[in-house]
Amino acid sequence: MPTVTDQPALSRPIGILYEHPEWFTPLFAELDRRGIPYERLRADRLRYDPAVTELDYSLVVNRMSPSSWLRESGAAIFSTLNFLSYLDDIGVPVVNGTESYLHEISKARQLRLLEQLEVAHPKARVINHAGEAAAAAEGLTYPVLVKPNVGGSGAGIISFDTAEDLQVGADNGKLEFGPDHTALVQEHLPAEGDAIIRVEFLNGEYLYAIRLSLMPNSFNLCPADYCDLPGIADGVSGRGLPIEAYTPPQSVIDQAGRLLDATGAHLGGVEYLIDARTGEPNFYDINALSNFVADATNLIGFDPFVNLVDYIVDEAMSNEKRSA
């Protein structure tokens, strides 16, 4: 592990673009420990001048969360997209830039990617009006989920057992469409072992995977601290159910990595479940912002924030050498 004394010096700070007030405390602590110059860029408090063509950052790391709409910061989702586009225009290197962020804030875009790469996934349709939900579900196998296009720790996801239930929900205004008023109507596959698997990657390489037990009638699968209740103790999540280290088959790791890479993300997580009816893996979510699991040292054997800062510093140093 790099120490404060052997850490290479940067002449320009790293910008950390973020919104959640607590998720990135370990990242900031590791940067501070090494004496790395950085600036905190609050995505919900942005201010910039589009006329300025140079910014004094060796690198900007995008850690903006699409779930900000659950914390009264939904406007930051779309202003962040404008800011990332601006950074592209003036040539500031970004980790998880515009293209990956476009996938992060759109399950519809992820759905199209799954189709293009011919990766097994739950069948789904896209709607922007509750009156289209029942028609969109035609040909799908019930139960079906209706989920907001812009994700957020499972918020707004509702499962319907029958077409009649779905129609009643639509008629009674029970469907949540999120900040862009778009939703997916998706088959609710039965998960083998009542669990899903999240596979994490950093710089295109497999980092670790975890297996998360499902809580009945809940879709909050966030494994980090501050996702719901206090974090993990003795392998139990804040959601009250176990999280365990897990190693997927190499073929599944390869598929997950191919999906994340296709979004342009440098780091993130891909979620899948084993369809209990077929025994086959089905991928359903690609997270360019994937929260590292809490108590990682005990759960998976290392602190992924150390690996993340190693990568960030290497990228920043490489950028400074190229621009010298």
Characterize this entry briefly:
By secondary structure, the protein is an alpha+beta fold.
List the topology elements.
Layout: E1 14-18, H1 25-34, E2 38-42, E3 59-63, H2 75-90, E4 94-95, H3 98-104, H4 107-116, E5 124-127, H5 133-136, E6 144-148, E7 158-160, H6 163-171, E8 183-187, E9 195-202, E10 205-213, E11 243-245, H7 250-262, E12 267-274, E13 281-287, H8 296-300, H9 304-323
Parallel strand pairs: 1-2, 1-3, 3-4
Antiparallel strand pairs: 5-8, 6-7, 6-8, 9-10, 9-12, 10-11, 12-13
Helix pairs in contact: 1-9
Describe the structure.
The chain is an alpha+beta fold. The chain has 3 domains: 14-96 and 303-323, Rossmann fold (3-Layer(aba) Sandwich); 104-120 and 190-300, D-amino Acid Aminotransferase, Chain A, domain 1; 124-187, ATP-grasp fold, A domain (Dna Ligase, domain 1). It has 9 helices and 13 strands. The chain has helices at residues 25-34, 75-90, 98-104, 107-116, 133-136, 163-171, 250-262, 296-300, 304-323; strands spanning 14-18, 38-42, 59-63, 94-95, 124-127, 144-148, 158-160, 183-187, 195-202, 205-213, 243-245, 267-274, 281-287. Strands 11-10-9-12-13 form a 5-stranded antiparallel β-sheet. Strands 2-1-3-4 form a 4-stranded parallel β-sheet. Strand 1, helix 1 and strand 2 form a beta-alpha-beta unit. The longest helix has 20 residues, at 304-323. It is globular, with a radius of gyration of 20 Å. The two termini are 27 Å apart. Residues 1-5 and 228-239 have low confidence and may be disordered.
